[in-house]
């Protein structure tokens, strides 16, 4: 099943519990606007290459469209629609006044030079400038898009529109209007969710083993925080494969090796395939890479008691059901990884008000939002005797539908 089909199945489960009207469900299933465009880029050795660019503006009933831009070979319209829909749910779960959107380019950015990457990023903005803006649509980083890329995009937007507020892109570098705490925000928000669920399940950090699948920006910051809090990280992986050590791995050491040699697999530890690592012994499994990694084919083999979704869409609906039947708690993406977009919202507020908040101010605002949202989802899960994803969707869908009216 495609990512968008999965998203619609998740919506269907919540809509059924809510007793939503068919006309409301139909409105929630349709993106408001879909942009698909060519981005011509002059490649360093002279010829012109065309890349496929996307932006899906799914729902803006609760505020401007909000969501990242992904650079990945797997990017296509179906994936963009799913991710944009999940953003609308996510902003509603944490109750920030923004909608949902997503963009991307089908490209392997590791194969581009820095100047080609800059041209591609500016090219995306040239195609989208009239459709985005502080009150319309506010993009941000996602898989493989960095603060530097946001700086190029924000600069291109300012040149094309004379809007120098910086409030059209979030996730910018600090000296270009970025927010303190934005780079680690997704990991930080996930950490608060981890803290909430381990307390409820009486799991003690020092006796809790964690495996993290994906060691990009999100996986790394999350790993660092849980490591510092005394949890034991026993497995880590990236796109090249994974490593496992039942006695625990040192996150900073692993990161050093990844930076020097390109992958975690060069670290001195038992090597294990990137997907095999999902099935290794641990208490908490953290998918932090891409969609559809926990499926009907491997869900049964997962040993963790908790799956904390730091990636978007890592678990398919069939896998969800298998995990639920096994008594595994899945803390859903739309809650667990919402720290990133929440701090993006703070960045947008700071840009609009020409303010710069300290890191402690940012964290002091993020923490209660994450804990309160977790609590609300947990309460709905208990009250209705449903899984955490359906609980989160119910809260979000109610808010979106009421805003649409
Ligand atoms: N790409 C991130 C996400 O999937 C952040 C989006 C944002 O900050 O707008 O939540």
| Biggest β-sheet description | 7 strands, mixed
How widely separated are the two ends?
Answer: 32 Å
- The helix/strand class is alpha/beta
Q: Can you tell me the CATH superfamily of the largest domain?
A: NAD(P)-binding Rossmann-like Domain
In the CATH scheme, the class of the largest domain would be Alpha Beta
What would the CATH topology of the largest domain be? Rossmann fold
Annotation, overall tally of beta strands: 12
Globular, elongated, flat, extended or rod-shaped: what is the shape?
globular
Q: How many separate helices?
A: 13
Description:
This protein has helices at residues 3-18, 22-29, 77-93, 114-128, 147-161, 185-200, 217-228, 251-261, 317-325, 333-336, 339-352, 359-384, 388-404, and strands spanning 33-42, 48-59, 65-72, 100-106, 137-141, 209-213, 232-238, 241-244, 270-272, 284-287, 306-308, 329-331. By secondary structure, it is an alpha/beta fold. The strands form two sheets. It has a seven-stranded mixed beta sheet with strand order 9-8-7-6-10-11-12. The protein has a five-stranded mixed beta sheet with strand order 1-2-4-3-5, with helices on both faces. The protein is 44% helix and 18% strand. The model has no long low-confidence stretch (mean pLDDT 97). It folds into two domains: 33-178, Leucine Dehydrogenase, chain A, domain 1 (Rossmann fold, 3-Layer(aba) Sandwich), CATH 3.40.50.10860; 183-336, Rossmann fold, CATH 3.40.50.720. The longest helix has 26 residues, at 359-384. A hairpin with a 2-residue loop joins strand 7 and strand 8. The structure holds glutamic acid. Glutamic acid is lined by residues 66-68, 140, 142, 170-171, 312, 337, 340-341, 344.
């Amino acid at each position: 099943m495609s990512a968008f089909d999965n998203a619609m199945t998740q919506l269907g489960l919540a809509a059924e519990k809510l007793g939503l009207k068919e006309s409301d469900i139909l409105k929630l299933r349709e993106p408001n606007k879909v942009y698909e465009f060519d981005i011509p880029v002059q490649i360093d050795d002279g010829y012109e290459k065309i890349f496929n660019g996307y932006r899906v503006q799914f729902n803006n009933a609760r505020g401007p469209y909000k969501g990242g831009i992904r650079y990945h070979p797997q990017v296509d319209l179906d994936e963009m629609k799913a991710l944009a829909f999940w953003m609308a749910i996510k902003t509603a779960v944490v109750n920030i006044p923004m909608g949902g959107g997503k963009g991307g380019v089908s490209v392997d950015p590791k194969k581009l030079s820095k100047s080609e990457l800059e041209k591609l990023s500016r090219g995306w903005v040239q195609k989208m400038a009239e459709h985005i803006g502080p009150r319309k649509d506010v993009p941000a980083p996602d898989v493989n898009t960095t603060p530097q890329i946001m700086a190029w995009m924000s600069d291109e937007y300012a040149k094309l529109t004379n809007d120098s507020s910086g409030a059209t892109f979030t996730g910018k570098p600090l000296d270009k209007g970025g927010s303190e705490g934005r780079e680690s925000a997704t990991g930080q928000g996930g950490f608060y969710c981890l803290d909430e669920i381990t307390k409820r399940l009486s799991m003690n950090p020092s006796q809790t083993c964690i495996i993290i699948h994906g060691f990009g920006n999100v996986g790394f910051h999350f790993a660092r925080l849980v490591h510092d809090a005394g949890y034991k990280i026993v497995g880590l992986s990236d796109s090249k494969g994974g490593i496992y050590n039942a006695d625990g791995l040192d996150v900073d050491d692993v990161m050093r090796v990844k930076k020097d040699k390109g992958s975690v697999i060069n670290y001195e530890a038992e090597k294990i395939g990137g997907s095999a690592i999902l099935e290794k012994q641990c208490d908490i499994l953290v998918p932090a890479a891409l969609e559809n990694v926990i499926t009907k084919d491997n869900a049964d083999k997962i040993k963790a008691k908790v799956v904390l979704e730091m990636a978007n869409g890592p678990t398919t609906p069939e896998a969800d059901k298998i995990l639920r039947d096994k008594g595994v708690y899945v803390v859903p993406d739309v809650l667990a990884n919402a720290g990133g977009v929440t701090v993006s919202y703070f960045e947008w507020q700071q840009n609009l008000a020409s303010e710069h908040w300290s890191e402690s101010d940012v964290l002091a605002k993020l923490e209660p939002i994450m804990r309160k949202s977790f609590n609300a989802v947990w309460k709905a899960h208990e009250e209705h005797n449903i899984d955490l994803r359906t609980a989160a969707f119910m809260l979000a869908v109610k808010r979106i539908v009421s805003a649409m009216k």
